[in-house]
Design goal:
CATH class: Mainly Beta
Shape: globular
Oligomer: single chain
Strand content: 15-25%
Structural class: alpha+beta
Number of helices: 5
Radius of gyration: 19 Å
Number of strands: 7
Helix content: 25-40%
Length: 175
């Protein structure tokens, strides 16, 4: 019996170690890009045709999620992509900026920001990072030596509203 318990305990520790050792990865379905391709023709660029706060029409986040799932093209979204779209819809509804991390390669991290006129800044601890904007809703950061994506903090502001994304905690801003 003790052998079974110790084998089970070791298995739990190994699984926990794999999860702890596996850092957060970027999203595979960029939500702003997906929205602009599949949703903007009916709902307006960056949700311009939505009434605010439209999320209040739904009794719960689950109901909003089901509405998003029912939209044309949404069947192409995986679970993380669907969650990202719901978070983006909530940001639009609240008139808040939205940030998503969508790519990491060769010491460069990339992502999306909405609305396009949001001011985006980044830092790793006290070290400010240079943020490139290759397109209105896109951002790119070339990481200095010894800076890991998990150390990066992004802040998007638009007027009096601001959101902060810690890449060690999440791939997107959500509330």
């Amino acid at each position: 019996m003790w052998k079974d318990v110790s084998v089970g305990f070791v298995g739990v520790l190994l699984c926990w170690g794999m999860v702890a050792a596996n850092p957060l990865r970027p999203l595979t379905s960029p939500p702003v890009q997906f929205y602009e391709k599949h949703c903007a023709s009916c709902h307006g660029k960056e949700g311009a045709m939505f009434t605010k706060p439209f999320e209040n029409k739904y009794a719960s986040v689950d109901e909003l999620r089901e509405m998003v799932r029912s939209m044309p093209g949404a069947d192409a979204l995986d679970e993380a992509g669907l969650q990202a779209m719901v978070a983006y819809m909530r940001a639009i509804s609240r008139g808040e900026p939205f940030i998503a991390w969508t790519r990491e390669r060769d010491r460069v991290i990339e992502g999306e920001v909405s609305p396009a006129n949001a001011v985006l800044t980044a830092a790793a601890g006290r070290l400010p990072l240079s943020v490139e904007r290759p397109a209105p809703n896109r951002w790119r950061i070339r990481l200095p030596a010894k800076v890991k994506p998990a150390n990066v903090r992004l802040r998007a502001s638009l007027g009096s509203k601001a959101v902060v994304l810690f890449l060690k905690d999440s791939r997107l801003t959500q509330r």
